[in-house]
Each structure stands twice: as structure tokens, then as C-alpha cells.
Amino acid sequence: MGKYFFLCCLLSAAQVLAVEVVEHGVIFFEEERFAGWPANAGMWSWGDEIVCGFSLGYYKKHPLGGHDIDSDRPSVNRQARSLDGGRTWTIEIPDYLQESGEERPVAELAAPVDFSNPDLAVRLRSNRVYYSTDRARTWSGPHPLPTFGRPGLLARTDYIVEGSRRLTAFVTAEKEGGDEGQPLCIRTEDGGMTWNLVGWIGPQPPESYGYAIMPATLALPGDAYLSMIRRGAVFDGKRRWWLEAFLSPDDGVSWHLLAQPNIDNAGNPATLTRLANGDIAMTYGWRTSPYGIRARISSDNGQTWSDESILRADGASWDIGYPRTIQRTDGLCLTTYYYHSEEHKERFIAYTLWDPALE
Predict the structure, then answer these.
(1) Which of 150, 229, 256, 339 would you label with 170, given CA atoms 20 to 30 Å apart?
(2) Which residues pair with 324 in a beta bridge?
(3) Binning pLDDT at 50, 70 and 90, where does residue 300 land?
(4) What is the signed CA dihedral for 28, 103, 143, 129, rounded to 10 degrees?
């Protein structure tokens, strides 16, 4: 399994548990390129076969401290595939991209999708949805999503298959006045032919400055859902960015803010993964020094959480994170994210293989 590295440090008044980190590795790196944001695209697994989506642009140092990506040059979608549980990867161009690099035109879905297909992958992006029934080798779409009375959607991939024709997705809509955003629960019960609004997740943030975006959601017993929401707002004239949890006890119709977990990670989405033993693993980027990737475990369906565990803390700046996590057949978790270190100015797609069995 390789040499184990143990990362442990103390944070303010909280205890941090040691996590067995098997290895860190690189999925994609190229000089003068910017590879980022796996959380936006999605990650899917079928045993040892894993596919992780990401965006690929060009590196350019931002003069004001923003993302170091060249906004004057095109960014494209890519996906990485591993056939050995994440040890080695090949990079693919999704087939919904034309030779020009642009996506195919948006078209209505011609026939219902069988969500019970074991090789299914679904991708949500903006006002669009894409379906694959062959492990992301070929894609149907983009297909349009309704905007539910808002100027547009800001969807990222977050969904739960609940039957051969039923799929529930958790997306973000623009606020009534535009800009991001407010999360909502939507559902199709006819294989993607039509979509309905189930419920808004929390109140609409203030128009001046405030957002609630990028839900990461799991099903709980009794027709319930747990969703982690990325938040930003202004308090007493100062900006704050954090993660907060919402619970729906009634199949996504109503949503209730939970006191915990509430995580001040300076603006990075979480991802939730149901483990084989029933526990929930939550991973997220950490955008204050020491920059890196962190995790918590819940053994009671999100009612309580372990202390924070550091998967790595060697990031060179805040411009990292956006993780996705799957559990391999051997029980180890594979977390993918975008990253950069002191050795490389470029952003690259990385992974950490770690053991979620905390003592």
C-alpha cells in the first residue's frame, strides 16, 4: 500500500485527529496551464474505474490576487480516467465538445434516460445537463434545464439517483436580480424529460453582497437529505466565507439550517461521500494559511462530526481546493482537487489517497 505519512497539527482550541495519508499524486499537470475546479464537473466511479472532470485554461498571474488564469484565452472541459483505483490517469476530451473546442448546441432530450443503468454518469453545468450510460465515454447533451423563474441556473454536479426514472439534483439559481446565488432542490420523475422545483434551500441572500452556492448533498434515512452549502456574506462591513449545513426531513420540500457543522474555510465547497460502513466523509479546501485539504467524518448521519483532519497543508496560496471524494473497493478514500505548491506556479489536478477509519 506504500509508505504512510501522518499529518497532524494543532489549530486554535480544537483537536485535530491524525489521518493515515497513503499518498499524494498528480492527475494532470502542464507548464503554463491552469487546471481547476473538479467540484464543478463531477467524479464518478465503477470499482477501480474512476473518471474526474476538470477545467483547463492558461496560466496568467492575476495582478490583483484573483485566480491565476488567463481570462482572455479559452478554457475547455477535460476528464481524467483511471482504471487502477486512481494510481494512473489518462486525459480525455469529452465527446460533447466539437473540434473547435466549443460544446455541441443545446438540444432537447429525445427519450427518457434509464437512471438504473450501472454505467450511468450525470453532469450538471449552468443551465444544462449531460448523460452518459457508458461510464463517461460518450455523452448525450447538453440538454436544457428550466430556470424556475430566475435569470439563470449556476448548476454544478450534485445529484442522487432514486429510481429508473427518478433523479433528484441540487443546483444553484441566480438571485432574482441576477448574480449568484440561491440553492434549490429539483427533480425529474420521467427520465429527464421534465424537471420540477421541489424546494429552495434556505432564504435568498441579500442582493448587495451575499451568496449561497454549490450544494453537496447526501440522502438520509426517512426521505431526508443533508446538504452542505458554500456561503459568503458581509457582517459589520467585513466579508466572510464559510460552509453551513441544511437538513430536509420531507424529500427536499423544506430545508432547515443546522447549527453544526459551520466551517470558516474562507470560501471553498465541500463534498459529502457515503462510506461503505454507513459513515459520511466530508472533505473541503482550506483557503487560509496553512492552505490545503481537510476532512471530517460523521458516524450518525451528520448529527455530530469528528474533529478536523488535515489531508495536506502545503498549498502555495488560497487558489486551491474544490474537492471530490469517492471510496475505493479497498476502503480507502480518493480525494481529487486542484492545487499548486511552491515548486509549481501552475494549478494542477491532484489526488490524495487516505484512510477514513479514524479512531
Answers:
(1) 339
(2) 336
(3) very high
(4) 20
pLDDT value, residue 24: 96
Q: What is the pTM of this model?
A: 0.93
Q: How confident is the model at residue 2 (pLDDT cuts 50, 70, 90)?
A: very low
How many angstroms separate the CA atoms of 21 and 3, rounded? 9
Phi, psi dihedral angles at 156 (to 5 degrees): -120, 170
CA distance 302 to 299: 7
HSE (CB half, 13 Å, CA atoms) of 252? 22
Three-state SS at 329: coil
Determine contact, residues 224/249, Cβ cutoff 8 Å. yes
What is the Cβ-side half-sphere exposure of residue 234, based on CA atoms within 13 angstroms?
8
Identify which of 180, 173, 192 has the alpha carbon closest to the alpha carbon of residue 231: 180
- What is the edge-to-edge ordering of all strands in the sheet holding 224-235? 210-220, 224-235, 238-248, 256-263
Residue given cell 435568498 in the structure block = 204
Residue spans of the domains in the chain: they are 1-104+321-359, 106-220+228-258
Cα 22 to Cα 81, 171, 283, 314, 319, distances in angstroms: 20, 33, 16, 16, 24
The CA distance from 44 to 52, in Å, is 7
First-to-final CA distance of the chain: 20
**Taking a C-beta distance cutoff of 8 angstroms, is the pair 321, 295 a contact?**
no
- pLDDT, residue 358, reads 58
Mean pLDDT of the chain: 93
Cβ–Cβ under 8 Å, residues 354 and 335? yes
Length of the chain in residues, anyone?
Answer: 359
> In one letter, which amino acid is 248?
S
E-only strand ranges, 270-358: 270-274, 280-286, 292-298, 309-312, 321-327, 333-341, 344-355
Please tell me the chain's helix, strand, coil percentages from 3-state DSSP, rounded to the nearest 5. 0, 50, 50
Q: What is the Cα–Cα distance from 79 to 337, expressed in whole angstroms?
A: 13
